[in-house]
């Protein structure tokens, strides 16, 4: 009976150690229609960016605001920064509403707000933390499940892209804390509202978006292998001692 108890205790120690190592880790990034997340090293459940809608304005507003959110699944296209935008972040890809929307392209997208969506799966629950690294031309706002997590940048004179905040030159890293994610297949939606308000005119007024993001439940640190080994040895030693006593 004593031997059985020792084995039960030892098993419980290893089970607890295994549970301690579990965490929901999510890695996301921008990529166009026709590419898979897994091929870029992002979480396999993430869908390609899709163009969900467009809201036009004749004159750029002084202060950007979120237009009514739309739904849609129009294709997106990979864009090259061509030395005008910053290099893509990590393995992400600059994307836009048409193949010619990038710097040096043949299309100057109309003034307005372009909405892009991507979805992903999660274990779900509260307490996720992480960050998002974002570039956009001219600037962009980010919503996670309908809640703003990154505000628009400030356009300023707009001779290139936003003068501050989210711009097209270098990534803006925004920490994400206290995030609640939904449970279920592709239940979570990242929404990007790109403000196209350039003043250069066609064909020199590109528009696009690039980002990476990471989220993890926890914090749930990985257990140190040496600690696990030590714990296991202690359990074995205790079991042997009980055998000797018996």
Quick overview of this protein structure:
With 246 residues, the chain is of the alpha+beta class. It has helices at residues 2-21, 37-40, 225-245; strands at 25-29, 50-56, 77-79, 94-96, 112-122, 125-137, 139-144, 147-150, 172-181, 184-196, 208-216.
Protein architecture, described:
It is a single chain. This protein has helices at residues 2-21, 37-40, 225-245, and strands at residues 25-29, 50-56, 77-79, 94-96, 112-122, 125-137, 139-144, 147-150, 172-181, 184-196, 208-216. With 246 residues, the protein is of the alpha+beta class. The chain has a five-stranded antiparallel beta sheet with strand order 2-5-10-7-8, with no helix packed on it. A four-stranded antiparallel beta sheet has the order 1-11-6-9, with no helix packed on it. Strands 3-4 form a two-stranded antiparallel sheet. Helix 1 runs antiparallel to helix 3. The chain is globular, with a radius of gyration of 24 Å.
Secondary-structure content class: alpha+beta
Strand order, sheet with most strands: 2-5-10-7-8
Largest sheet: 5 strands, antiparallel
The run of helices and strands is: HEHEEEEEEEEEEH
Helix content: 10-25%
**Number of extended strands:** 11
Poorly predicted parts: 6-21, 225-234, 239-245
Question: Hey, roughly how much beta strand do the residues contain?
Answer: 25-35%
Cα shape: globular
What integer is the average pLDDT?
84
Gyration radius, in Å: 24 Å
Tally of helical runs:
3
Distance between the termini: 10 Å
